[in-house]
Amino acid sequence: MLTLENFTKNWEKKFPALTIKSTHFFIAVSGGVDSIVLAHLLYSMKANMTMAHVNFQLRGEESDRDENFVRDFAAKLNVPLQVHRVDTLKYAELYKMGIQEAAREIRYAWFESLLKKQDVLLTAHHADDQTETVLMQLFRGTGLHGLTGIPHRRNDVLNLARPLLPFTKEQIKSYANEHELQFVEDSSNTKDDYTRNLIRNKIIPQIQAVYPNVNENIFYTAEKLKEAEAIVEATVTSFWKKGFKTKKGILTLPIVYWNKVKDNATYTWGLIQSYGFKPTQITEIHKLLEANNGAYMATPTHRFIKFKEEIQIVSNDTSKEHLVIYVGEGTLQTKNGSLHFELLDKIPKVDPSSNIAYLDATKLDWPILFRTWQSTDYFYPLGHPKKKKLNHFLGNLKLSPAIKEQVAIISVGDKICWVVGHRIDDRFKITSNTTKVLKITCLDKS
Q1: Average pLDDT, integer, range 358-367
Q2: Strand order in the sheet with 48-55
Q3: Is 380 found in the same domain as 330?
């Protein structure tokens, strides 16, 4: 049964952080019974609210009728109203998409533009919608997440809540009748042109003939699966967290560790989804584990690179570092660690580590520059009288693509002094005539 009391109790249970008095709500109101009841409930709770209506102009006079009805309803309650009129057919043709997809994109893009930082959007999805969604996901094929259906809450691009989700269509209509609420019917809901309508009008009634409580049962199952999903996510996240290693600022996973769960798609999906991959790419990702060095798969945000016995996870952020160094002593923080500078008045005992450079400070013109290497760079490697393209030098080191990409240099003007962490330039080496030395120590990220 849907009453103000039951609705309020569900609200307090599901949305404890959304206080009625301190939050402003935009309520998506189509004019149908679901959204009218939702708006009436929030009005009865004395919420700070604004109604939002989209006229998709898909049903001619009926679309205008809906808009006028919502305008009258908002005026009757003395509640602010925002209306968005859009030619959905033209939008769908322009962007080459289906009508329903276009309407959904238009609706949520507009809602997103309305919401400010503290606003929350409320939609009137209910238990029957949950049943339809779970069945659609099941029929087309899905994993655990797909069977959890519509979430009560999301707070990503949109700050959105669905407070009617536990209540059935029948309960919502009973509330409307009890409170003598008028509403409009969308004639397209009776047509079976769309998959959801076909499931709603044909399939579910037949299921209900055998299982009368199908809506309540599916809602209950989806809620339990949400709990199971949370346990699975925690387990999978913990597994990958134990396997991650960071080498020179690059996140890596040993292939031998991944192979422990290679045959379990749930584990692989738990890893790759946050990097922009799709479930359909799981098989290809697994092939990467046995690919040649340098093979990779990419999304708009990340790359998974096979290198030796590891998979490197690298951001596609291509921004280059370019830091000007004005003084000869102190510490410089970089993306991949830090550089410590010391000016010495006498030639020290040289540490052979490649992470330390000793440069003749008298040959330097300040400021000097720390920057990411470029394909056009060349230098004179220590001990070699002839210049060499830096790209060829790094290639001979057989670095992984990810490590090679983040190599940096110290330069004076267009002259490289040090390929950081690898080799100084012969022109800046210390000699018996050197009177002042710049010592640079590279401290990589662990």
Answers
A1: 88
A2: 81-85, 48-55, 24-28, 119-122, 159-161, 153-155
A3: yes
